[in-house]
Amino acid sequence: MSKRVWLLLTFAAASxxxxxxxxxTTFHQLGHAILRELIEVNTTASIGNTTIIAEQLATRFKxxxxxxxxxxxxxxxxxNRNLVVRYRGTGAHKPVLLLAHLDVVExxxxxWTYDPFVLTERDGYFYGRGTQDQKGGAAILVTxxxxxxxxxxxxxxxxxxxxxxxxxxxxxxxxxxxxxxxRSSIDAEYVINLDAGGGEIDKGKHTLFDxxxxxxxxxxxxxxxxxxxxxxxxxxxxxxxxTLAAALDRLSKFDFPAKPNDxxxxxxxxxxxxxRPDVAADMRKVGAGVADAAAIARLSKTPLxxxxxxxxxxxxxxxxGHAQNALPQTAKATVNCRMLPGxxxxxxxxxxxxxxxxxxxxxxxxxxxxxxxASPLRADLFSTIDxxxxxxxxxxxxxxxxxxxxxxxxYLRNAGVPVxxxxxxxxxxxxxxxxxxxxxxxxxxxDQGLDFTYDLLxxxx
Length: 461
Known about the structure:
Layout: H1 3-39, H2 50-63, E1 71-74, E2 82-87, E3 93-101, E4 120-122, E5 125-127, H3 135-150, E6 157-164, H4 174-181, H5 183-186, E7 190-193, E8 198-202, E9 205-215, E10 217-226, E11 230-231, H6 240-252, H7 262-271, H8 277-287, H9 293-299, H10 303-309, E12 312-320, E13 326-327, E14 330-339, H11 345-356, E15 362-365, H12 379-393, E16 398-403, H13 409-414, E17 419-421, E18 426-428, E19 440-442, H14 443-459
Parallel strand pairs: 3-6, 3-7, 7-17, 8-18, 9-16
Antiparallel strand pairs: 1-2, 2-6, 4-5, 5-19, 8-9, 10-14, 10-15, 11-13, 12-14
């Protein structure tokens, strides 16, 4: 090769790298602007409105060249609608649905250091309601599709974006409504749900990348004790509050048996690579299906591991009495259960009745549980995720994960569409502030999440 040719190639490579860096920087700036736009529209169930931000984002997509017929703001009410956008590919494969929700939980401004509905940048963080759950993920998806469009990237399948209402509460659930009323608009081979999974930071180090392939089932019951009551100056032994308290004490000392499913076993097997040697040994035993009670007991001391391995039921609300100078006629507690997929609610309730062991305590179901079948662990998707993770953060364990909470991905799972939950946002395991005060994300984590999602969507086959 001549020196001149070598210099030309070197210059071309440098120019390409500079252009890519410029593109990424512009991309990050756009992402920041879209995140600000999302945070600063109140989308709480009480006084918020997802339609406002859905229409603002729809305008962005249309201005970027998306056909009007591929951008829909739809829903059963004027106030809280969903945004559905179709990015057209070649159609060689069935579409992938990209899912996030626009609504957020309530936030009381007087409780926060900063206004929860203003995106605030401080000390390397973005603060605002929804930064973690779930407007950070929504901003990443919107920005990435706009970048792909600007670069004329043609995927071999359609990419469908659904930003929905009602995940955190409200008059209806957006995903459920779309399945029942607009199934053709969101029908896909599988779903990437940004409301679960993602990266873990432990002591400043990126350790794991979780991919949610299963989730526990939400089910609440009410425990009620009643008696005639009376004057507080004449106490009686069958005080309704004491009876309920004794029942809750028995419940607090009970653990459902550990039943790690295939997703949980796979999680422990792979997460062991990033754990301390003693914890890793226990993880590998559980991952291999070894019935080692001591290993399970040690892992159960960590709330996350405990909840992944078994059904849990915990008291979350109390109500009792009617006057400070009267014996209580009623005492009531709400017990929230997170059941393993496939667990029979009736069996769980019978177990609670047995553990309480007092016929004076009446148990009643508060809801109708919706089962959420686990999704198959697709080797092709996990391989693609692994490659995209390596491109941004280097080699990290990509681990199947069972969400101990619940997402609206359950409606899609029940409709026969596999759901995989993950986001490119890395969050410190001791700084999970979703639903809490001063919710925040690292700005660098957001930017890397943008880079990861862009790389991932270009790799999808």
